Amino acid sequence: MTLRLAILLTLAAAATPLRHGAALAQRRSAPRACRACRMAALPLGASVSALTSSNRAAIDELAQRTASVRDEEHDELWLLRFVLDSPSVDAAEASVREVLEWRRGDGKPIVTAAAAAVEQATAGGGWNNEAVLSAAPNAARVRAHIGASQCQSMASPSGSLVYVIRAAAIDDKQLMASVSTDELADFFTYVKEARAAHYMRGRRAAAAR
To answer: Looking at the structure, do residues 142 and 182 belong to the same domain, yes or no?
Structure first.
């Protein structure tokens, strides 16, 4: 695997935080190690309810600050990931505002397509993976080189979403001869948006029971 693909896959794996959960300004000013340390410091196996409880003050403050720009779907569970990913409420607020700007602007076609695909994928009561992947941007060209044997989304025993990329199983030269960097990023962003939407739906359904 070339260094170029390793970098692209790293960026693609980070597409959701970059476009959906962390301000670019924060990324430029704060070393990745700081973010990694914050996430590593979280209690191993901590439940969502425990994390919500222990971060209640920050979540409530963030909710108040961003009330005018959030929709109903952007609830405290959605806000929690910004709180956990940010060193302060100020940084979390900046992330929320940037993410919503992207989702309602440049990223709206991807967000809308992913939401529609998830609705179709769950229409029968289960999960139709083909309904999601076939609607992905540049799907035909990317899927010729990346499929279920190279990438998998799955749930951990605790219910967390795990995304696995077997980079060594990807023919990177053929892949990058078929798509541009931006096209590959759009594909991964769409896929992760769909997975995140499905995951959040499941979490909210579980919380409602």
So the answer is: yes
- Residue closest to 199 by CA, chosen among 106, 132, 143: 132
- CB contact set of 186 (below 8 Å; sequence gap of 6+): 110, 137, 138
33 within some domain? yes
Asked if 63 and 127 sit in the same domain, the reply is no
C-alpha span between 186 and 180 (Å, rounded) = 10
Instruction: Note the pLDDT tens digit of each residue in 7-32.
Output: 445 445 444 444 443 333 344 344 44
CA distance 123 to 99: 28
Query: Which phi and psi (to 5°) does residue 68 adopt?
Result: -75, -15
Residue ranges making up the domain that contains 78: 18-104
What is the pTM (predicted TM-score) of this model? 0.71
Helix (H, G, I), strand (E, B) or coil at 146: coil
Measure Cα distances from 64 to 8, 25, 67, 79, 102 in Å: 36, 22, 5, 11, 21
